[in-house]
Design brief:
It is a single chain. The protein has helices spanning 2-22, 40-60, 78-98. The protein is built from three helices and no strands. It starts with a helix and ends in an 11-residue tail after the last helix. The chain is mostly helical.
Length: 109
């Protein structure tokens, strides 16, 4: 009985110790090592660098740079649209006449 009780206590202590060690807030995989804070001179130099880089990029950038291929497309006339619509309607009627069973079959040109 005593041996069983001692074994249970040892197992409980081992389980508690491992969970306490796992919850330690130390620098490692999950958290980076704290670094020394930047000085005012370093902050000022970094800010100036960001400002100059931003101004340079803003001068070089043009509207639409982030969207390549946005050129104006050719306008289609009303006659061309009507002709295309008539062609589609004729193709549809032809397909319905050829396929009375209702099975969908793709048409090829």
């Amino acid at each position: 009985m005593i041996k069983t009780l001692l074994a249970a206590i040892a197992a409980a202590v081992a389980l508690m110790a491992s969970s306490a060690y796992a919850q330690a807030d130390k620098a490692g995989e999950a958290r980076a090592q704290p670094s020394a804070p930047a000085t005012k001179e370093e902050k000022k130099a970094a800010k100036e660098h960001r400002k100059t880089t931003g101004k340079k990029v803003a001068k070089e950038a043009k509207a639409g740079d982030d969207q390549p291929g946005t050129t104006a497309s050719k306008k289609t006339s009303k006659e061309e649209k009507a002709a295309a619509k008539a062609h589609r309607k004729a193709e549809g009627k032809k397909a319905v006449k050829e396929n009375k069973t209702g099975d969908a079959q793709p048409t090829t040109k």
